[in-house]
Amino acid sequence: MIQKTTGKTAIDFLFFALGGTSYALAINVFLAPNNILLGGFTGVATILNYLFHTPIGTVVFLFNIPLFIAAFRKFGLQFILKTVFATFLVSVLIDVTAPLLPVYSGDRLLCALFGGILSGTGLGLVFLHGATTGGTDILSKLLRLKFPQMSMGRVVLLLDFLIVAASFLVYRSLENVLYSLVVIFVSAQTIDLVLTGFSHDKLLFVVTGEGEKVVREITETLDRGVSVLPVRGGYSKEERSMLFCAVRAVDVARVTACVREADEHAFVVVCETSEILGEGFRKRGADN
């Protein structure tokens, strides 16, 4: 058991390092030198770097500390531990590689495209192993505790848009704002591709003998709804539970990690969907 845990931790560290390196390349080679922003705390840190030459990675981590404390109090240590470690590692890699990497100063559209691809790849690798890089992800979860009717996706999108819009006051360039929106869009699409391919919504079917434990792990950790159906094994005749859960593509890795945490012998099927209607997804009657 100890060897298994150690091996998993080493693999997580490797993916966090790879993701952090890709993210650092996006920031230091393509985005920050060309005054193009990502959303979230990285966007704010990029603006401060432009104004005061503060290190981007350090500022990102410092901004996250109050959120880490609040999330620890609300969600517990298990939820926040990987995120703290991943955020720290990514922040260090951004600052350490900044003076070492070459700066691309060519076509700014290429900067936006490759910055988005590299940042999305980096974040996707971090998400793939059950962590985030803090920032608006945690902030949106905390806001939902007070305003449960709010959509997390919309909260994150609104915060990113406000940060990018505010950059106009600093850079005085509408082009910078437009290129930043391109980066955010490309990065989001790349995250989806890294995690689960081209489908955006997924259905998970989980057959487990630890139904209540798995449901509690998913609902408390990820704030996702789960439906439970009683089933019986055709061969073993054993009574089990089948859990049904509809999720965004970016949540699949975290849901399966929760399932493995609660029941390592659970049987999980991930299905692609063409459309999901309802709370948290596309509204009924919405236009295409």
How does this model look, in words?
This protein has helices at residues 2-31, 40-52, 56-75, 77-97, 108-128, 136-146, 152-171, 174-196, 211-222, 252-262, and strands at residues 201-208, 227-232, 239-248, 267-272. The protein has 288 residues and is α+β, with helices and mostly antiparallel strands. A hairpin with a 6-residue loop joins strand 2 and strand 3 (239-248). It is elongated, with a radius of gyration of 20 Å. The model has no long low-confidence stretch (mean pLDDT 86).
Quick overview of this protein structure:
With about 290 residues, this protein is of the alpha+beta class. Helix content is about 65%, strand content about 10%.
Strand content: 5-15%
Number of extended strands:
4
How are the strands of the largest sheet arranged? 2-3-1-4
- Integer average pLDDT: 86
Q: What is the CA-based Rg, rounded? A: 20 Å
* Proportion of residues in helical segments: 55-70%
From the structure above, extract its key features.
288 residues; alpha+beta; four-stranded antiparallel β-sheet; 4 strands; 10% strand
Q: How does the SSE layout of this entry go?
A:
Layout: H1 2-31, H2 40-52, H3 56-75, H4 77-97, H5 108-128, H6 136-146, H7 152-171, H8 174-196, E1 201-208, H9 211-222, E2 227-232, E3 239-248, H10 252-262, E4 267-272
Antiparallel strand pairs: 1-3, 1-4, 2-3
Helix pairs in contact: 1-4, 1-5, 2-3, 2-7, 3-4, 5-8, 6-7, 7-8, 9-10
